């Protein structure tokens, strides 16, 4: 059974571009370090301060090993330093969830055959 990590960020609304750069960097480092990255999401409509990161791992033990690899990864280290220097993240919360809705039906587009 895999687990999915949802990271909720509160970001500085005047530094959204810095968060987007941070997200793109994780787009390279996270998969390289062993997690299946679903993506990072920055504000578009509604809240100007809420952003998310979502990735999946096999277990909490796999998460611990992944975090160690990420901390040792050159881009991971640089990205942590970038966030500390620019201070665009005001708050960061993690929650680990398991998918409860499986199996899913096949996706259908209304009006198509």
Overall body shape: globular
Poorly predicted parts: none
Strand order of the largest sheet: 2-3-1-4
> Approximately what portion of the residues adopt beta-strand conformation?
25-35%
Overall pLDDT score: 95
How many DSSP-defined strands? 4
Distance between the termini: 34 Å
C-alpha-based Rg, rounded: 16 Å
Largest sheet: 4 strands, antiparallel
- The level of helicity is 25-40%
What's the SSE blueprint?
Blueprint: E1 3-11, H1 16-32, E2 36-41, E3 50-57, H2 60-72, H3 74-86, E4 89-97
Antiparallel strand pairs: 1-3, 1-4, 2-3
Features:
single chain; 113 residues; alpha+beta; four-stranded antiparallel β-sheet; 4 strands; 38% helix; 28% strand
Describe the structure.
This protein has 113 residues and is of the alpha+beta class. It is 38% helix and 28% strand. It has helices spanning 16-32, 60-72, 74-86, and strands at residues 3-11, 36-41, 50-57, 89-97.
At a glance:
With 113 residues, this protein is of the alpha+beta class. It contains 3 helices and 4 strands. 38% of the residues lie in helices and 28% in strands.
């Amino acid at each position: 059974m895999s687990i999915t990590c949802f990271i909720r960020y509160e970001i500085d609304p005047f530094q959204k571009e810095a968060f987007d750069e941070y997200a793109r960097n994780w787009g390279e480092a996270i998969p390289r370090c062993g997690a299946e990255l679903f993506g990072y999401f920055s504000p578009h409509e509604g809240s100007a301060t809420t952003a998310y990161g979502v990735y999946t791992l096999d277990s909490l033990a796999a998460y611990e090993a992944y975090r160690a690899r990420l901390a040792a990864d050159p881009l991971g280290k640089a990205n942590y330093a970038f966030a500390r220097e620019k201070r665009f993240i005001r708050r960061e919360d993690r929650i680990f969830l398991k998918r409860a809705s499986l199996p899913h039906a096949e996706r259908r587009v209304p009006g198509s055959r």
